[in-house]
Amino acid sequence: MESFIQILTKVNNSLNDFVWGPVMLAGFLAVGSMFTVRTGVFQISHLKLWLDVTFLQLFKDRNVVKTNDKHAISQFQSSCTALAATLGTGSIAGVATAITAGGPGAVFWMWISAFLGMMTSYAENTLGIKYRYKNEKGDWIGGAMVYIERGLHCKWLAIIFSVFCALASFGIGNMTQANSIASGLKESFGLDPRVTGIALMTLAAMVILGGIKRVASVTEKVVPFMAAFYIAGGFIVIFANAARIPSTFASIFTEAFHFRAAGGGVLGYGISLAMRKGISRGVFSNEAGLGSSVMVHSASDVKEPVVQGMWGIFEVFTDTLVVCTITALTILTSGVYNMKQYLINMNENIEVISGTALTSQAFSSVIPFGGEFVAIGIVLFAFSTLLGWSYYGERAVEYLFGLKAVHAYKIIFICVIYLGCVASLNLVWDIADTLNGFMAVPNLIAITLLSGEVITMTKEYIAKVKAGKESINGDNFAR
Length: 479
Fold this sequence. Notes:
Elements: H1 4-19, H2 22-38, H3 42-45, H4 47-53, H5 62-65, H6 75-86, H7 93-102, H8 105-131, E1 133-134, E2 140-141, H9 144-152, H10 155-189, H11 193-208, H12 211-240, H13 245-256, H14 271-286, H15 294-297, H16 305-334, H17 339-347, H18 355-364, H19 370-401, H20 406-422, H21 426-438, H22 440-449, H23 451-467
Antiparallel strand pairs: 1-2
Helix pairs in contact: 1-21, 2-8, 2-22, 6-12, 6-16, 6-19, 7-14, 7-18, 8-9, 8-13, 8-14, 8-16, 9-10, 9-22, 10-11, 10-19, 10-20, 10-21, 10-22, 11-19, 11-20, 12-16, 12-19, 16-18, 18-19, 19-20
């Protein structure tokens, strides 16, 4: 007779195969394609506009960086907090896993999912600002559950989303991140996971118990630093192997359309596997379509929904097309990944090096103490993800049980961090991955049915900007 754990594992595997399988991945691409087409390929046709509103605006307008609203955070802070939640271990270990399991071609499909996901994220965050409201404390409250209830008038679907989000926050947003930190510090520096657990709980408590203002204050400092730190290291490796850059890009594009797998007689992963691994890792990393980042974007002091939507575009661009690409190119140009050998080992069921170990090898091939460098990167990325997801879970719990339940949630969330550091989490990771993916089902339904509102708001905003009646950041000049 099968044990409860065995049954749970089988059920979760079946659900996971669905939520990260061909049907759902096609759904992610279809929704992103729909918004891309209906907005006239906004991410390209209005490239200058969304860069002006986001990254370039940081150097022009102090109000984008700071806010005087005690019940809101700035546009930059909301974007950093959202990036904090997405720039996790998936940006390091996840990309490596996609390459080992799906080949270099997976990187191409990761790019495709990000390109289309930029407009999915745009739609989510535009709707998030439109339907947000203030709670009894005066704080802005928004998220997929809010526009599902207020836009679709479908509260039961909003409740389902919130339940998935709250549960996922303890798994993918907490225990798995804490475990990655503890494992990385133990392997690289010999630090006892119990010590890591206590230290991590203390640091997290100091930030999380301070509310979104403190979380945003920390992420706006940590995210730019950790991104620059990791990108700089990646560029050192890539430029040291500059001669391999042309062949690396050639392999990415060639393997993306390799129609026969190794078992079929031609040495290659096959287009189906490359697509599945690349798209799923892309979505997993940038979270476009999951509806998670909407909750923190909705806390921004922005007035114009479309402006915050463009911060969503910038978020996906930074996470996948910049950071994840750096990881991929670092691995592929360094020479530590041998596609032929990996395919042979996979066909013969020989265990291969993947994830963090492969990324560490890539950095170590050029940078002294490369393993330690990657370990520090994982600590920063995972800790920032933990902070971001604590806010997502907080918003979901408040929606389900009211404001009074939030403090209890924070305490439980902080305590679970220690468990994540010291426990074996294989099944927990798998279940968390499934719950994370299931958040997409109600969210994709909602943004598809509300797509007309997104298109209308986009056209109205563009018309105002062209007529000079509104600045690019949403300030009204005339009516």
